[in-house]
Design goal:
Blueprint lengths: L2 H33 L4 H6 L2 H21 L1 H18 L9 H29 L5 H56 L21 H21 L2 H8 L5 H20 L1 H5 L9 H24 L4 H30 L5 H30 L1 H19 L19
Length: 410
């Protein structure tokens, strides 16, 4: 095994360990604070800083990684997640909305530093001439991450039911500290540093294709989180009377299945060099996705007594098609990014991703409290229509991997 491959595996395993704790923490916060009597919009508010500081982190994290190295940003992310978990260990009487939002802000910074590091590392490992391998590796990383996030949802719900809020946090904290120590011992420094010294203004993308893809990503993930972050778990708990464990298990299985589909996306869309995704691929899958939430909304309105069956069946279909969309997008950003300074482009793209999640999180609590789950689904379809419109101008097959001028040569 080459040193480069060993480093990538270590980064990936660290990212996996972080992802489990991140998924568990999100489920703990949603279920615990709803149990304490918080309204859906108040629960959504707890994640505002999480998503907002994800935007800030991606905006500046790519620049930081380009100057200091990708493994440095990974270590910073792991340490910040330990801090976020430790902050929530105080007595529940002191867990005000603002305090929890502050802890979630730190967790949001940690999450996006880790994501940007892991996605950027693949670009450095795979030669630009081997795009099909790049697609497979991006799909595997993205899919496995989401499967483990789903496992984290399940773990969070089970730990909350069995150990309580503080006991669950202690278990997550102990596991993440082990990951921190191993990453410090095994990872080298300097991977991902640019051959030039990037200026802070270099974080802005100069690629039209990357800008369009980033805008499409914003609405794609906003469309998911409008119903997924707050509306769905609260609906399952308050309207269908599901237990904490049942809610966590369903969401966990959904994300695990979604991650599994992401991992095999190359087998669905094609793995030969001539079949790697391009702008047309992103457009076609966005068009297929935009009708699904609308159909779920119509079915909920026409058959209110079958809402449990409609939600489970509809979201399984949505999850499958959304997973392909996400995997295609994840490949395109890595393919579009520059080799030298990859973290700058990847960071800019995931800034848009975080912005979409922020908008979706706010709307999830607000629309659900105002009009219910059906309205959340209709809003999701509107976002997906915008995603498809933005995808129309993405480069086709002959322009799939636009080469950008090196910033350092300007």
């Amino acid at each position: 095994m080459s040193r480069e491959l060993l480093q990538y595996i270590t980064v990936t395993l660290s990212y996996w360990g972080f992802t489990v704790t991140d998924g568990a923490l999100r489920m703990l916060v949603v279920l615990y604070f709803h149990q304490l009597g918080y309204s859906p919009f108040e629960v959504a508010s707890l994640f505002l800083f999480y998503e907002f500081f994800g935007i800030v982190t991606n905006f500046s994290g790519g620049w930081l990684a380009a100057r200091t190295g990708l493994n440095t940003t990974l270590h910073i992310g792991l340490i910040l997640q330990v801090v976020a978990l430790a902050m929530l260990l105080i007595d529940s009487a002191y867990l005000s909305v603002l305090y929890v939002m502050a802890a979630q802000a730190i967790s949001g910074i940690a999450k996006d530093l880790n994501k940007m590091t892991a996605k950027s590392s693949i670009k450095l490992l795979v030669p630009e001439t081997r795009q099909s391998q790049l697609y497979s590796w991006v799909a595997l990383l993205t899919g496995s991450k989401n499967a483990l996030k789903g496992a984290g949802f399940f773990l969070g719900a089970v730990l909350l039911s069995s150990l309580g809020f503080r006991g669950a946090l202690l278990v997550l904290l102990g596991g993440l500290m082990i990951v921190c120590v191993l990453s410090f011992l095994l990872l080298d420094r300097g991977a991902g540093k640019t051959t030039y010294v990037p200026k802070f203004r270099d974080i802005w993308s100069k690629s039209a294709a990357l800008n369009r893809l980033s805008a499409a990503r914003l609405f794609l993930f906003g469309a998911r989180d409008i119903w997924f972050v707050v509306a769905l778990p609260v609906y399952l708990q308050s309207q269908l009377n599901w237990s904490h464990t049942a809610v966590g298990s369903f969401l966990a299985l959904w994300i695990i299945g979604y991650g599994g589909v992401q991992s095999i996306a190359p087998k669905i869309t094609g793995t030969r060099p001539s079949q790697t995704p391009d702008g047309r691929t992103a457009l076609h899958w966005a068009l297929a996705l935009c009708v699904i939430p609308a159909l779920i909304a119509v079915a909920l309105s026409l058959s209110p007594t079958s809402d449990q069956l409609v939600i489970i069946g509809g979201l399984l279909v949505f999850g499958f098609v959304f997973a392909i969309n996400s995997s295609v997008h994840s490949f395109l950003i890595v393919a579009y990014a520059k080799q030298d300074g990859v973290s700058l482009d990847v960071g800019f793209y995931y800034m848009a991703n975080a912005a979409g999640r922020l908008v979706g999180t706010v709307l999830s609590g607000l629309i659900y409290q105002w009009q219910g789950l059906t309205a959340c689904m209709l809003a999701s379809s509107c976002f997906l229509i915008i995603t498809a419109l933005l995808s129309i101008q993405l480069p086709g097959r002959h322009q799939s991997f636009p080469r950008q001028q090196s910033i350092g040569s300007e």
